[in-house]
Fold each of these.
Amino acid sequence: MKILLTGATGFLGRHLSKRLKERGDEITHVSSKNCDLTDADSLSQFDAIQFDQIYHLAAWTQAGDFCLRHPGEQWIINQKINTHVLSWWQAKQPQAKLICMGTSCGYSPEFPLEEQYYLQGEPIESLYTYAMTKRMLLCGCQALHKQFGLNYLYLIPSTLYGPGYHTDSRQLHFIFDLIRKILRGHYFNEPVVLWGDGKQKRELVHVDDFLGTMLNLESESNTLINIGAGEEYSIIEFAKRICKSVGYPFEKIEFDRTKYVGARSKVLSVAKLKQFVPEPAFCPLEEGLEQTVEWFRAQFFPQEQTQELNAPTHKSETVPG
Ligand SMILES: NC(=O)c1ccc[n+]([C@@H]2O[C@H](COP(=O)([O-])OP(=O)(O)OC[C@H]3O[C@@H](n4cnc5c(N)ncnc54)[C@H](OP(=O)(O)O)[C@@H]3O)[C@@H](O)[C@H]2O)c1
């Protein structure tokens, strides 16, 4: 198949590109370097190709408090990106199926995390604009399907983890931040301080498991589907597993109970997913974390060197987004 992939240089995009190439697809990669999607004409360079699928992964965001600090820019940039992709799809690629990503923070904390409630209530304040731009992406897909008969699939991933996460100075999703802190505690004897009492629970999906499940759903159309593991663990449980992999005593971890930790619990409903993929294959958390810790260690602590320069020191979240 001929596939246009936006967000091709991102964490998910790089993994997806590899999988699609292995499947024999012909991929056109889009990132801000070769095609700035905030520019209305950026996609016209691909008009001549008739795509079978458009995987739309591009989004302008980061973990931590980034959304809280950039709501105006996020609204302008993400609305432009999504509007330009959707209007090009409608005008130039109506034969293509658009597969795009929502976010678990699109859900209101007042409603169950079931697909039928995705547009109900209000998302949490700290992620409000980002969440609303993701909701608008769904509204756009629905509208273009209704008026022009275009086909889409809107997937809502839980927080993803695994090797191949970004290694630049961007803020880290909570699990990578936990790994970073524990490795720094181990190698540099820095205090490991986690936010909250550690009892708040979060769900993770390994990026390879997410992709396997997503590719199994590709034939579904004009609907939204959560992709989650269906189970959550406390920050304490994640920390214990990481400590075991790293060889750091869990007892040395301190908890700062004065810090904001967001929702106490956050797990996507997978009832709808299981209608399409009755037994989604997810690797055991222990195994996935071990692999991720080893990848992280190799990136930032090569051959167990302990030079500060090798390790990311930037502030990042312990509050999952
Ligand atoms: N990672 C998760 O845990 C998670 C969870 C739920 C949903 N999602 C969604 O899944 C998608 C992929 O996530 P990710 O973690 O792979 O994101 P990511 O690593 O932050 O990658 C973002 C991608 O968007 C591209 N992009 C940003 N601004 C652009 C612009 N103006 N023009 C063209 N491309 C632009 C980036 O290109 P450059 O590299 O050139 O900047 C990059 O390829 C996103 O839509 C995200 O909201 C992710």
Amino acid sequence: MEALQTIINHRTIRKYQPKKVDPKILNLILEAGTRASTTGNMQVYSIIVTTDEKIKEELWAAHFKQNMVKEAPLVLTFCADFNRFNLWCERRDAKPGYDNFLSFYTASIDALLVAQNVAIAAESFGLGICYLGTTTYMADSIISILELPKNVVPVTTLVIGYPSEIPDLTDRLPVEAVVHFEKYNNYSSDLIDEIYAEKEALTSTKELITINKTENLAQIFTEKRYTKKDNVNFSKSFLEVIKNQNFMNNE
Ligand SMILES: Cc1cc2nc3c(=O)[nH]c(=O)nc-3n(C[C@H](O)[C@H](O)[C@H](O)COP(=O)(O)O)c2cc1C
């Protein structure tokens, strides 16, 4: 039940106390991370723990100068990593065939599952977390800051620390909106209206629409936050990173 409470009480924390995290707690959190399921138990991921202020400052610049990167004592970068596994295979006269897109995707899934275990474990100790989507936007800079070798790609980042704010729980679509029993039940227009009605009626939504000068909430996503132009540009740079890191040999 405690695990469930931790999960249900999750809120992203964007303001942190300067208080450090006890290394024993950090170790337990990291160990909880490694208990995540991974493909074939290959554990094709790595976690880079950054506490050094100078390196954090470099990461902060790469992560669009989001302040929590400097404020939170811990920055954990989760990487899809076939480097270690390939080195092991090669030393054992086993020929690795993991320089392709599927292997990148496999390793990314592993890394993300580990990250979410780490997030929940951290929250169970009263710590706050924030994921950073800027990891994929700025993967090339992060690779150079953290000196990631070939066959390693950063896929997400968590900042972790003691919260100095307790934000309200954010809204969610109703569970029925995202769950399909037995087979996919496609959405009629009326159902779309119904599913998004609560979110659209929130005072916070109305405030956002005023600030962003759009007609509705959906347009804030398409015109302001996640535009086609940005998505195409970041897709191109991320595909280049995946290629440079040796994961696009699909022949
Ligand atoms: C993959 C991923 C990337 C995210 N990137 C950012 C980010 O760069 N900056 C930020 O402030 N929040 C980021 N978030 C947090 C989301 O905005 C947040 O989870 C969402 O608004 C729901 O709020 P909640 O986590 O408090 O329930 C990210 C979340 C995920 C899962």
